[in-house]
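To close the section, here is one more complete example, presented without commentary so you can practise reading it yourself. The ligand is flavin-adenine dinucleotide.
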Amino acid sequence: MKKIAVLIEIRDGKLKPSNLGVCSAAHESGGECIAFLLEGNAADAAATLQEYGIEKVVEIFTTHGAASWNPEVWAEAIIQAMVYYEIHALLGLASMQGKDLLARVAARLEAPLLMDCIAVNLVRHTAKKSQFSGKAIAEFKTCGDYHVYGIRPNALTAVPAPCRAAVESFKASTGSPGLSVKNLQPGLANDIDLTEANVIISGGRGMENGDNFNLLHACAQTISAAVGASRAAVDAGWVSHALQVGQTGKTVSPKVYIACGISGSVQHFAGMKTAGIIIAINKDPHAAIMSKCDYAVCANLFDIVPALTRKLRKPHKGSK
Amino acid sequence: MNIYVCVKHVPDTAATIRVGADYRIDEDITFIMNPYDENAVEEAVRLKKRMAGAEVIAVTLGKAAAEATLRSALAMGADRAILVRSDKHHDCITTAGALCAAIRQDGNPDLIFTGRESIDAEGFQTMYRMGVNLGIPVASNVIAFDMDGQRVSVISEMEAGEHACLEMTTPCIIGAGKGLNQPSYPKLPDILQARKKTITVIDEEQSGTHSSASRVETVILEIASEERQPEALEGSAEEIADAIVGILRNEAKVLMNS
Ligand SMILES: Cc1cc2nc3c(=O)[nH]c(=O)nc-3n(C[C@H](O)[C@H](O)[C@H](O)COP(=O)(O)OP(=O)(O)OC[C@H]3O[C@@H](n4cnc5c(N)ncnc54)[C@H](O)[C@@H]3O)c2cc1C
Ligand SMILES: Nc1ncnc2c1ncn2[C@@H]1O[C@H](COP(=O)(O)O)[C@@H](O)[C@H]1O
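Output:
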């Protein structure tokens, strides 16, 4: 039987929820699904992963130890585990970490790699992904001994498929890397991971200044949403580039994307067009976004956003 | 010191993409240098200015028209350029092979700059494949770069504003991210001077690329639908806010029930 591995991402000791959609994609293929975790807490994760079709959880240890994250070492360890467990298809998240690790693995195996997929078929070895900054969608077939796919976070739905997962450890013997990691600086505490967020509230040039972004932060906080921005807002110095959504920023796929004072340029759309529901708040009924959204609010954002914050503050405490 | 920069000729971000026969796009549109590759060229040129005797060589794999992007790199300050000419469609595996073969043929690289991704193929991988091909380390999504002798220090941007500080020794490959620098626009004299600089053209068949058993084939390429049926939310700010809360709760189901 075919074996498929899912590279699981842990963040701040927690399983990223978007891993589960990737597990479902692996499970759907009918093959045996193995989760790879690097120096993480496999036992904790296994309890959740087994609800989504994962039959085995393998915790991979490198010679270098948990304290020293190094992408080259991790890639080498993943390859050793793939060989040991006879894995021919590897799936993971197209997060920043996934983009780096999966590409290192694919390059070393000289395996075809499709990054940022929005659909995958592991029987036919095909996947769909965006091309030309989201303007086109291609379906590609990968050919080779190994296949590697990075899945856009939240693009695939997690479907419960309960089973019992055995937990094993695998000790890789990793050599000395050509790259050394000096240190990791965490992001700011209020930087909720844009690509993981269920709801994103973004501001553009219509926000007028950096201080006004506090209105978005206040609104976002009520439902654990993340705050995003257009390039116009980033270039003006109002918010950090880490918040930029779009072609030269992050690609996001939240359930709801609320665009405040954003006109809807092609480059901005490149980063958010796969959002579930798009709500646009814009004064100008002719702004491009007003005809490319699900709900168009033609109004002043400075009236709507504070009102929304007040409503969200009252009856509920958070989002799920 | 030999600094190579890989630049790709890609459709302008504002261009309308049309898909023709055999899933090729209509190329009668404006092409530009891949935006991240501009950051790569800028960084290479800045470094060259600090290093006596350094040379910046721009390399591309593409059709004859890709020469325009090489001219842009020359106008930004690259010294000369190499066009690996091919009319074929390439996946990232053969692209990396062809770029490495051309660089090897030309000289010994001390540094290779690329962009973190090409905005047409959205491959996110050519630099890593080049690293394996040449047996040298790679860091991508680099937003800060520094070099001291043989030692290269970079900051790679990770999730949620997290930064990884990495070190490598030359030769190595740097995948430029957007925050690395602000590319400068060439002035007229630079553009005129660029016309005099040399572009060496090599045919891909002659560049000694090896073929791989692994490849990516296009099954379908189609224009992404942006069709949505906008529904206007009207009324007072209070009413609109209520409507949005309703959408969040009932349609998107992202609010916890209270
Ligand atoms: C190579 C390249 C890459 C790019 N990458 C990106 C990218 O990654 N992300 C990105 O976003 N852009 C990107 N851009 C820039 C893009 O082309 C646009 O310039 C940018 O998205 C515009 O930002 P905006 O919508 O905030 O500003 P604008 O286009 O100026 O729109 C502001 C909107 O706010 C509305 N408004 C103003 N005041 C209010 C108010 N009080 N209430 C309600 N509405 C109000 C206005 O009606 C207007 O529609 C890129 C461009 C290029 C060339
Ligand atoms: N045909 C090409 N010619 C020159 N450089 C390229 C080419 N394709 C990719 N690259 C380089 O590799 C980087 C990553 O591309 P990709 O892997 O396609 O996302 C780009 O930013 C370029 O620097």
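Once you have examined the tokens, check your reading against these statements. Residues 194-313 of chain A form a domain with the Rossmann fold fold (CATH 3.40.50.1220). The CA atoms of residues 40 and 99 of chain A lie 19 Å apart.
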